[in-house]
Design a protein that fits this description.
Elements: E1 45-47, E2 53-54, E3 65-67, E4 78-80, H1 85-93, E5 98-100, E6 110-112
Amino acid sequence: MGPYGLGGGTAARYFPTMSDPVYQPPYKPVTATPLDRPDPARVGVTRMTPCFEHFCAVCGRDGGFGFGCDFMRVEPGLWACSEHRDEVEGRWKQGEVGKPSLPAQGSPPFRAG
């Protein structure tokens, strides 16, 4: 008996299909702009799948500082780059929260403000 329980030494290859529960669509970035550059199309976007992405609520760069995030309640909060951290924290303290955005790839992303 061959590998994977198949006879004749034939190795089985598993290729998930879109109807398969383990299928993950290929990753598609929000835009082609590098993460360290401002991009108006990414301003305030937060996506949960296929990977966790969060962009600055002011300029659209990769946001490393999150305010008001609670993933157990699916609240994305506001995210900021280092340059806009104080401004976004001030907006969050004034009551601004992340809101649902455009749907994408199996899980809704969120857009701040």
